[in-house]
Amino acid sequence: MTQSYSSYRNLPPLGGICSFEEAAKKGLTVKECVARLKRFHYAGKRLHGIFTAQITSEPIYELKSAFSLHAYLCAEIVTSLRDRISEMREPPLGLDKIPDPHLEIYFDEIRSAPTTEERLTALYQKAIPELSRAMARHLEDTNPLADYPSTRALKFARQDLLQMENFGREAVASLVAEDCRSRAEPWLDRLDEYLQAAGGLDGISPTENTLKERCHSRKPWRYDPRPRRDSRFPDPYNMAVNAEAFLYDDSFSAEPKTLMMFFKRLREIDVPEMMASIIVETPDRSWLYYRDMTRQLWDEARHAMMGEVGFAQLGVDWRHAMVNFTWSLALNTQLTPLERHAVLYFIEQGLMAKTGKRFEWEVAQASGNPLSALFQDYDWADEVLHARIGRDWYLSQMTDPQQAVAYGDRCWSKVLMDWERWQKDGLTEHRNWWPDLYREACRRRQVEPDEAVLNYRVSYREVRADLKTISASG
Ligand SMILES: [Fe+2]
Ligand SMILES: [Fe+2]
Fold first, then answer.
1. Residue 217 has pLDDT above 70, yes or no
2. Ligand 1 center to residue 9 CA distance, Å?
3. Distance separating alpha carbons of residues 94 and 234, to the nearest angstrom
4. Are residues 33 and 100 in the same domain?
């Protein structure tokens, strides 16, 4: 670089991206760049799949929610990498190809981790930091001007990865005991060996590449569709309180309805449990299908968190409410993935009607609880997006809108909520928990409970026909 050249009045040159020296470096060729991006893309896709596959069967609520978020962040990273790769003279893109057999084993092993503790350690202390480091190397090696669009995508991706890593560090510190860590050590070392054999995650380190044997992934992996919950959900088969019937009963005031809506929001954790099963069990759709479905999955986990925050703000322990999993359990074990999607669509069509999300927002407004009003405002906005996702990916498979709704109705009607059987088998007593919860909320607010609200008793045995479409999470 000649010393004499400088920008006009010493303004930052090159849009402020970098200096002339940095912009003149050799960097990576398009071919080298794409080869690395494709490996990052593969890693992101596998991480998305691993997070999604654990949401249903992971019992710990905080992990279920974090996996929902991290699946979504991975889906966004994958989308940005696909967009960038497609700009780089690459058709056919070959994005479904596995870039290296050892990379495949690496992620198969993490997916097959035998315990939550081992999975957490492998995800958050191996794979995610490894991907972030490989992206950092790309940023160091590439020409920052010529390859600017890649650098921008990678910087955003690294921010998301850092967020996951930070969560993971604390999760591992809280859940993984020292003896568990040392027991897992040989397998964690083995993961490093697979990566070495793959030439590193970015494939730039020389390797002798002799195929290494599998460990946990020797047995074919199977998705577990049965939802599980931790000990704060002591009665997950309980169907004693029909939240919708209470909400749409004009004789009750808005204020106790807000408490019921916080319950309804928190109960929505069953939607990620169900949607994860659709995503995992529906192969070979276009990537945008998985991206959109994962966005909705994360929104539903976020709605559950809004309910959790609502309880925290009221000072009421949500364990007084029996947050059940009967909906996700029944759908996941009785319907095909398309039938599950049909039910979701049918319910969400109902939520867009007059009785749905607008009504919930109006109740929240009337209740004088600004937090509930805020949450319902966003919940409603999210629902409009979900209706669009339903139209794009479910309705498009049906002949017309009427048939799509009718099919969803039929699928929902054939789901057996085996109320009596669960009770006979001793899984639940269907205890009416509402009076205790309501009384506790009144005690916190230092107000007298309303007798009529206290005596509310409508179980899911009685579902009013006009509430059928909304008698579930959404
Ligand atoms: Fe929702
Ligand atoms: Fe929704």
1. yes
2. 55
3. 48
4. yes
